[in-house]
Write the structure tokens for this entry.
Amino acid sequence: MTPRRALAALTLLTALLAACTPTRHPAPPAVDVSAAVIPVALIAAGTLNGVPWQVDLVSVAGRLCTRATVDDRPAGQGCDPPVSPQSPLNIALDAVDPRVLLVYGAADPTVTHLTATPSRPVPLTAPYDGKSFFAYATAPGAASDLTAYDASGREISSAADKIRDFESP
């Protein structure tokens, strides 16, 4: 392309672009996110090492979610945690505050009770949408297992590997 043709093409392109008016799109409507979150139930709450913590069951746009806070700061949120008889526990671990490790999640209906190690019972909520929920707080480095049992007392799941992987640097 010769310089004269390039200049002519550039001039034509400039004229075409100048004739176009930019399309303005209206701003998207403002969404009040807090209005979309509907409290369902308190899963568990407490204070550990002087730090308040809480895990709630909430509905977000029709989905069941766990929402954790530590020292009034968001620690985590998970929605529609999958569970089944083949994979009866779905756990989340949050250490947003170095003084508190939150262990929380969902359990399949085949789980009738949970025990944490070091030894302590972990209460389950009443079932919601085919699963129960649980939460507890411990000192970082202290948790080593969360074991699920069925109605006959048989161990059906352990979260030891996931806890060990999370706690290992």
Remarks:
- DSSP finds three helices and eleven strands in the chain.
